[in-house]
Amino acid sequence: MDQLGKVALIAGRGTALETACAAELIRTGYSVVRAMTVSDAPMGASELDGSPVVDLVANASSAQAVVEQARVVHGRLDALVVFDPSVARGNLRDLSAAAWNADLERLHTSVCVATAFSSVAETGSAIVMLTTIDHAQAYPGRGPSAATAAATVGVCRAMAVEWAGRPIRVNVVATGVVLTEEDQRAIDHGDRSLERVLLRAPNHRLGDVEETARVVRFLLSDQAAFITGQTVSVDGGWTTLTQHAEGLRFP
């Protein structure tokens, strides 16, 4: 409970990863407030962990109001976690302008929430922006994810430099392949091959959201007081392995 009395805002779509981060932060003493970036986000997780949810949906224009509303709940904000990654998939030649713009708007919202947080956060606060390992490697059909993940890394480095005087620390955690409930259903139905995925993993296993959450907690804590502007990949060595075991085939 070394962070007792501190308050964290978690903004995103209400994913299992955000819920794991909330649980980990609560375990170490934080009070947690949740904000959703989509209106149809699942709310059950927030109800289970007891974290209040901001009424407003976070977007570029509402970011300041969302952060102010979150700050009122416990009277302060010390930490921010944001996770709103790309959802567009497909060959770059086939992607619509609408798909691109939707992903860019998600990135814009994340930046606006972080900027709003920086204006009201306590001295010595910290931000972790969650993204994917697409920032480090290119995969067919994931061009928008590569673009927004790389942009997240770049803008967080800029934030870390600009806000160091406060000080507010800013770091990125890039998630590897994590076995979600959706993935498990696809495997159970035969729509996805777990073995084929595991061929790409040096330690021949997938991660879980709790492992990522523990890294997020560390980077937000006082134990990481001299770490800022960094990107940590929680991927079991996925981005370190240079070649798929079966080889990639391109037309």
Task: Please tell me about this protein's structure.
With 251 residues, this protein is of the alpha/beta class. It contains eight helices and six strands. It has helices at residues 16-27, 44-49, 63-74, 97-120, 143-162, 181-188, 194-198, 209-220, and strands at residues 7-12, 31-36, 79-83, 125-132, 168-175, 231-234. Strands 2-1-3-4-5-6 form a six-stranded parallel sheet, with helices on both faces. Helix 1 (16-27) packs across helix 8, helix 3 (63-74) crosses helix 4 (97-120) and helix 4 runs parallel beside helix 5 (143-162). The radius of gyration is 18 Å and the shape is globular. The model has no long low-confidence stretch (mean pLDDT 87).
Question: What's the short story on this structure?
Answer:
This protein is of the alpha/beta class.
Shape: globular
Biggest sheet character: 6 strands, parallel
Q: Over the alpha carbons, how many angstroms does the gyration radius reach?
A: 18 Å
Percentage of residues in helical conformation: 25-40%
The CATH class assignment is Alpha Beta
| CATH third-level topology | Rossmann fold
Q: How much β-strand is present in the residues?
A: 5-15%
Overall tally of domains: 1
Topology:
Layout: E1 7-12, H1 16-27, E2 31-36, H2 44-49, H3 63-74, E3 79-83, H4 97-120, E4 125-132, H5 143-162, E5 168-175, H6 181-188, H7 194-198, H8 209-220, E6 231-234
Parallel strand pairs: 1-2, 1-3, 3-4, 4-5, 5-6
